[in-house]
Write a structure and sequence with these properties.
Helix content: 55-70%
Shape: elongated
Largest sheet: 4 strands, mixed
Strand order of the largest sheet: 1-2-4-3
Length: 323
């Protein structure tokens, strides 16, 4: 059954929203469970405070910058004179996406790859390597740029930054509550057998919460990659071009020297995962398996279109009917 990019976009947005909701519940649950260990009567306040921390993180990430990522990647801003093709392609995709033209940066690296950064359309940046410009044709380059444009239009960088910070907060809360409980903090008097069981469950929950949070974060990341692929298909109306580009990038033997463990998940193909596991996806993968991404894009493609016979021309009388 053929999949349309509209169905793919809608499905991935629903999945991302559900997973983000679970992450919010997990954060509030850690606050509630940890506070319950200190004082069973105050757990609602702990949940509320943890949720408030999440809101503060969202506001912070919405206003934070992206210059550090560009500096780490050693990216330079592209010029129309030197990089005319990619600048023109970015301009075309920005018009198709209905967002301001993002800055285009180039990384001097022979491995083909690309990523997007910025907290939204008003501060979007697309980075491509020189290897990408040299090894992809224009249609494939357009597919990659459209994928990164999709990340910008869908606010994926803001979302994933918020999720990563939320995981960090959950880890900090876990350490804080475990340390207090280990040193005998909290109210211990009047504790019956049922309350003791609840406290054990709460303690186990906050210990395991960071693992659950990390799994949710990775799942959201994979869904946003699928969403960006579908958005690229919508913008270009040519999903096969992006599928071809993904196959070229994933099988290229060059190692991306500009990437590190911190920036690797931002790229369209995770360069670290490509070297370690040949792009096999698992629960801790930031990207879906390339083969699955290509399969979905091929399903969205129209495939070979058979030439249609021209419509028959109407018969034209050889002479005027009133003669």
């Amino acid at each position: 059954m053929r999949t349309t990019f509209w169905n793919e976009i809608a499905a991935n947005k629903r999945s991302s929203a559900f997973l983000s909701f679970l992450m919010t519940l997990l954060l509030a649950g850690v606050g509630a469970a940890g506070t319950y260990l200190i004082d069973p009567e105050l757990w609602p306040f702990g949940a509320a405070i943890a949720f408030l921390i999440g809101v503060i993180l969202w506001v912070y990430t919405a206003t934070s910058g992206h210059k550090a990522v560009l500096a780490i990647s050693r990216a330079r801003q592209a010029t129309h004179e030197e990089n005319q093709v990619v600048v023109n392609v970015a301009h075309e995709m920005a018009i198709a996406a209905g967002i301001p033209m993002p800055e285009v940066h180039v990384i001097e690296d022979s491995a083909p790859n690309a990523f997007a950064t910025g907290m939204g359309p008003q501060s979007g940046v697309i980075c491509v390597t020189t290897g990408l410009l040299q090894k992809l044709n224009r249609d494939e380059l357009q597919g990659v740029v459209a994928h990164e444009m999709g990340h910008i239009r869908n606010y994926d960088i803001r979302l994933m930054t918020t999720m990563a910070l939320t995981v960090g907060v959950i880890v900090l809360l876990r350490d804080f509550f475990v340390r207090i409980n280990w040193h005998g903090g909290g109210r211990r008097r009047g504790k019956d057998g049922g309350q003791a069981i609840v406290m054990v469950i709460a303690l186990v929950f906050i210990i395991l919460a960071p693992i659950f949070a990390m799994l949710l974060n990775m799942a959201i990341s994979r869904k946003r990659e699928f969403l960006a692929d579908a958005t690229a298909a919508q913008l270009t109306r040519y999903p096969d071009a992006l599928a071809d580009a993904l196959e070229k990038i994933s099988t290229d033997p060059e190692e991306l020297e500009a990437a590190n463990n911190a920036t690797a998940p931002m790229y369209i193909i995770n360069p670290v995962a490509k070297l370690r596991s040949h792009e096999r996806s698992n629960l801790f993968s930031t990207h879906p398996a390339t083969a699955e991404r290509v399969r979905r894009l091929r399903q969205m493609g129209m495939g070979p279109i058979a030439p249609r016979a021209p419509a028959p021309m109407p018969e034209i009388p050889m002479q005027r009917l009133d003669d």
